[in-house]
Amino acid sequence: MAVTILKGTVVSAPALGKLSIWENGYLIAENGVITGVFPTLPEQYAGAPVEDFGDALILQSFADLHLHAPQYPMLGMGMDLPLLDWLNAYAFPTEARFADPDYARAVYGQLARELVENGTTRVCMFSSLHREATLILMEELEKAGVTGYVGKVNMDRNSLPGVLEETTEDSMRETLRWLDECQDLRYIKPILTPRFTPSCTNELMAFLGKLSAERDLPVQSHLSENTSEIEWVRQLHPDCQQYWETYAKYGLWNSRTIMAHCVWSDQRERQAMAEAGVTMVHCADSNQNLCSGVAPVRTMLKEGVRVALGSDIAGGDHLSMFDVTAAALRASKARRILDGWETDLLTVPEAWYLATSGGAAYFGEQPGFAPGDPLHAIVLDDSALPQPHPLTPAERLERCVYRRQSGAIRAVWSAGRKVYTAE
Amino acid sequence: MAVTILKGTVVSAPALGKLSIWENGYLIAENGVITGVFPTLPEQYAGAPVEDFGDALILQSFADLHLHAPQYPMLGMGMDLPLLDWLNAYAFPTEARFADPDYARAVYGQLARELVENGTTRVCMFSSLHREATLILMEELEKAGVTGYVGKVNMDRNSLPGVLEETTEDSMRETLRWLDECQDLRYIKPILTPRFTPSCTNELMAFLGKLSAERDLPVQSHLSENTSEIEWVRQLHPDCQQYWETYAKYGLWNSRTIMAHCVWSDQRERQAMAEAGVTMVHCADSNQNLCSGVAPVRTMLKEGVRVALGSDIAGGDHLSMFDVTAAALRASKARRILDGWETDLLTVPEAWYLATSGGAAYFGEQPGFAPGDPLHAIVLDDSALPQPHPLTPAERLERCVYRRQSGAIRAVWSAGRKVYTAE
To answer: Do the Cβ atoms of B334 and A334 come within 8 Å?
Structure first.
């Protein structure tokens, strides 16, 4: 049996707004599965090798529940445009390049490495519509040590015909081929991915809903990001009272469904999320960059909606989930200002929970470093920063969220495997 | 005569919203003073050594017009608190540590290096109330190659008595001593710095106004950051209709005055700024972190107010002015959302202008790389990033603003001197 023992200042998020802290604690896993965090080394592990990180922070690694891999090359561009213009001018032409497997291999290799180096070990990710590039993305993530779900995008209308659009028939056939081809991967699994309601015909939506039920496949898409988009969906589906119902009516709305953004989801739509157990992915930077608005995250949490965070590259401009966490904090303050100072801001422990435990919940994990869960962890050395006073672990965590520290991540574990060590 | 010739993709901001671009251009300085940017090497420089940076971007370096040096150790902490609580819990106790010159020397050396490495070569900076530490700060900045103004802070009431507060008499005496002691520095000059109206007695304000007039000294302070602060000022100065008048009545309101924040400045206060030629420093991250609000920057620009950007560490959590520029862009989108999508957002060329030319104007420089101005420049190599398509220089600049690239800054010039070269 392989035992992993990490010693340091262990900080985890066992509940929303709560931190568990063990100074000089021992985080232990057997065969990659956490057995617990202990204040002293339990007797049964005496003599086992301990990786002692001194005073460094040992944290849960991140779960990034919404990002577009083929938009990685355009990260940080076109931000002066609103969503629908930005898609046509930037996102679609960039995604179209992934028809080329060599380009896909090079870009996705770089993306996978950057994810791991930044401590993101679980993802739910959009690929492009290209089957071959999607498989390459899954292989590169698996090779780098990332875990989670990747979806070949389905889009058979209202896209860029001749550049980035499938026929309905192609979309179905390629989806089935892709599902066949990716079944040998161990850590990266498929997720059905209708791009969003405007890009999928009813026939395609019905096919995906049926496929999801037959093969027990999860689903990811976008919801209520932007007011123009919502109006468009209303015109496309006059029979649906609200956007979410365009997914629900095709069987794409359940506890394994991920919906990104939900900026404009009102009480009724939020209730539908809470009741179905849909996971809402908050993409704060993206929503601000594209002037979409500010999602009512605090209200959603109060109403029992499952919430996780997403970088949403390349609507979002940050791949590092430290930055994404800080963006969620800032967005909660924008929300507070928008609401006339009525709404409570998110605290650092709350945002940290969403970035780690909140996302991990989608993969069936318990919050915090829970016994029985796979070991996903990062070691962060913040000793190069000046000290204003002897800092508590909670203060150190806050500073690490806000303050980018090149090279501070010393090591990363993903599903029990050490996948990154700083040089 | 020393000639500096830099070759690359030269991009400058000659006017708000405008970029001048020379691909394969030559940026030339003689004895540290810019002579021009040329598409080919002028004949008179034939044979002179050329520093050829290939396709790298050659950009104006940054001007950071508002930051608190003694808050550098607490960068990224205490962000869940509003301004006045945050000052008492975090900022004041941290600043108090600068009574110790050894601590000051170590921290300020690190800060100065980090500024230069991040391409910030001009600053208007608050020190603490400590005379000795202020002189150390000025020396460390000068040594690292930063230029600009530093102020010993004056604060003789409503602070932390016994921890961080002066008597009126001490404040005056120490200010005069500091002015004597710092006069041999060449690149870092003194600026009078009443912390903000609530921390200065009328007697001290009058003394500073008189000193400013007698010795032709510039002034920096804070204005209308937070609604509680404004209400407090109203109680302290019932004779003044608005906050700005508490500075104006003591002779601290003129074209060499810098006022940070101005989040809540209404039309009348903005008009007073425009008429006096006061420079307003927009600190977007800080205003959001501390839930102060979102400054009406677009409106100020239309009304002819001089605007620059500030990192405002440690209310702001970013020292890099690339991040500060991105924060200003994001804030303009928050402003747009707050205003019901009525207000235009800032474009990248506009925000870039504010971060470079806007701040440089305070030091008497013309916008862009103007002949006759001292050479302040950075060389930025973005070649490690993936290419979605052949990018224009403007797209590359946008990406550099949004996307942090560790190690991308290859070299920095400040007032004609090469002050940083990447290893």
So the answer is: yes
